[in-house]
Amino acid sequence: MGGMSQGVLRKYREYLPVGDGTPMITLGEGDTPLVRSNKLSQELGCSELYFKLEGCNPTGSFKDRGMVLAVAKALEEGSQGIICASTGNTSASAAAYGARVEIPATVLVPQGDVAIGKLAQARAHGARILAINGNFDQALSLARAVAEMYPLTLVNSVNPNRLEGQKTAAFEIVDELGDAPDLLCIPVGNAGNITSYWRGFVEYHAAERAKTLPKMMGFQAQGAAPIVLGQPVPDPTTVASAIRIGNPASWEGATKARDESGGIIDTVSDDEILDAYRLMAAGEGIFCEPASAAGVAGLIKLHRNGLELEGQSVVCIITGSGLKDPEFAVKFIKSEVREVSPNLEAVEAALLMSVSGGRKG
Ligand code: AN7
């Protein structure tokens, strides 16, 4: 095994519903970097701020941790195929793991609302793609109904194996920091991730791998904040398409995580999401998805509203890669691309306008 990535099923086998009959499949998910903040930590006066780069998973989002277990169990049970609804990342992950083990994947996505990279992944991996003329919540009820009628395994986070596999991210944070952080900031859409992290921290605490538990700080986009409002949002809107969800499947898990941990679930505006997205890219060197920026935006908002972060350890979950949604970057990041003739004079003339300090020697 030397040097080969073992994947989360092997690494955390004792904490997962994995038995002798479970195929130990992997695409190298897990073991994602926990990177210290450079810039934001200074602005917030928080010396221990980390980003967990879940975009470094094989399909570019956190979904792979739970998908690998859901697909392994589907195989173990002799399933003839997998199905899910998705704002994009779940479908990319299901398509990849389906291709890996050679069972067909069917994905239901809200038409016109999925980032191009995610759709490209589902296509490349050979998934059957149904573009539903409706939103994610409608697609999820349809996927549930179809999974009832046909011998297909539903691999949305209503599948308990998804939540089980996903909790390995909490284990990794504790393994790396030596304990749980004080605060965990995380975007909330269908609410599976926040539910899983809390479960992971609680289990590790019970197993005496961690002395403390974090406060769970979840953030929904303002136009798609059913948990904050206390009621479903029939027509959710936000620039962050991944979390454009009005009736989260793991609603109860999320409120339980919030309440048991003494945390919060709050909103962030689209402008706050955009500011955090830009700051992450330009200030930290981390290109994340708009939805991932919601957790960072939430932390910035809390600080602005007076939350003291000095002496606190904070982890922000960066749930997906910015490469998933290049159109978004082009649309929302103002940066000039200057056309220049292919000769030195023209390049120099262009540089003079932007390089300070003049020429060498
Ligand atoms: C980058 O792919 O729901 O609260 O169908 O892609 O666990 O739903 C994605 C959600 C955060 C929210 N960040 O996590 C899907 C889907 C990114 C995401 C979330 C999603 P949950």
SSE layout and pairings?
Layout (H helix, E strand, L loop, with lengths): L6 H5 L22 E3 L3 H5 L3 E6 L9 H14 L5 E4 L3 H13 L3 E6 L5 H9 L3 E5 L3 H14 L3 E2 L5 H7 L1 H10 L5 E5 L4 H15 L8 E7 L4 H4 L21 H11 L2 E5 L1 H15 L5 H15 L8 E6 L7 H7 L11 H9 L9
Parallel strand pairs: 2-10, 3-4, 3-6, 4-5, 7-8, 7-10, 8-9
Antiparallel strand pairs: 1-2
Helix pairs in contact: 3-4, 3-7, 4-5, 7-9, 8-9, 9-11, 12-13
Ligand AN7 binds next to helix 4, helix 9 and helix 13.
Tell me what you see in this structure:
This protein is α/β, with parallel strands linked by helices and 361 residues long. The chain has 15 helices and 10 strands. It has helices spanning 7-11, 40-44, 63-76, 89-101, 116-124, 136-149, 160-166, 168-177, 192-206, 226-229, 251-261, 270-284, 290-304, 326-332, 344-352; strands spanning 34-36, 48-53, 82-85, 105-110, 128-132, 153-154, 183-187, 215-221, 264-268, 313-318. The strands form 2 sheets. A 6-stranded mixed β-sheet has the order 1-2-10-7-8-9, sandwiched between helices. Helix 4 links the parallel strand 3 (82-85) and strand 4. Helix 3 (63-76) packs across helix 7 and helix 7 (160-166) packs across helix 9. The protein is globular and about 70 Å long. The protein starts with 6 loop residues before the first helix and ends in a 9-residue tail after the last helix. Residues 61, 86-90, 187-193, 242-243, 289, 291-292, 319-320 line the site of ligand AN7.
